[in-house]
Fold this sequence. Notes:
By secondary structure, the chain is an alpha+beta fold. The protein is about 30% helix and about 30% strand.
Amino acid sequence: xxxxxxxxxxxxxxxxxxxxxxxxxxxxxxxxxxxxxxxxxxxxxxxxxxxxxxxxxxxxxxxxxxxxxxxxxxxxxxxxxxxxxxxxxxxxxxxxxxxxxxxxxxxxxxxxxxxxxxxxxxxxxxxxxxxxxxxxxxxxxxxxxxxxxxxxxxxxxxxxxxxxxxxxxxxxxxxxxxxxxxxxxxxxxxxxxxxxxxxxxxxxxxxxxxxxxxxxxxxxxxxxxxxxxxxxxxxxxxxxxxxxxxxxxxxxxxxxxxxxxxxxxxxxxxxxxxxxxxxxxxxxxxxxxxxxxxxxxxxxxxxxxxxxxxxxxxxxxxxxxxxxxxxxxxxxxxxxxxxxxxxxxxxxxxxxxxxxxxxxxxxxxxxxxxxxxxxxxxxxxxxx
Length: 384
């Protein structure tokens, strides 16, 4: 049977992900984007060459690319163009607009990447470079053959960025983020994610509402892992999350430890007034218990604070205690005063240390608690 396909282009993917001729599925979307780019350029070249407002019927369907094989050498993608009999009526010309478009795209990429004046290129097609190469990561490139195979032309994130920013103020690329849910808008289907790169509104599906509500409640010790497409400005600052590819909510505290904390705090919350001896002993309030829970689990997640033993004080406060060798360490959570009072006593030497951390006007001051506890912990570990 006669093979009606002829070689069109053989782009080479270079980078660690493409070793042994492997191509991640998401990168294949860049081949579709390349096909669309060449097709749009071909349409513009055809109309310009023949002075026509439209291309003939069947023009788009006459351009079909197939991935014939993937060969070693990083990953060599052999793209062939399918030739069908009906194409003869559409392209009854010696000049082939698709070959010309392929060569123009390659020359244009080469010029931009080499800081040379680029050839004349249809300006209305430039935005399509936004999809071509979107899934390439830093250090990866897609290499195109120049017309006639005289030189290799590298297309990577930086070249793509330069091209797209000629007609736009932002460009898109894949991004992976880890952050905390700080707000949830069920009606709009969005949540606010705070990350090291800033805070962003992210869309979510209805089936994730409960998970995200729990993540908002437990923001001190849960994190959201997000794989998405983001918009970046000219300075490579992330400005917006445009498309969510994957979203996972993970606990950053051992679930067994978190459960023990939760159960113990529930026991303390169930105490009644007079619990100490029938007359003394204020019952811890819901707010007091929730505040201690939030701070402690947050510190266990962020600063690897060890799991404490938990008790109630007669004043209705929550008291956390740790033992490090000869040191007995405690932190008393006074919700009404927004104050944590810390004390450490060496049961052998009699040495003692004290400190207080006020949360008034400084809700993120919890670092002082973990610093006090972990310094003593570090001293003990340093002697072992």
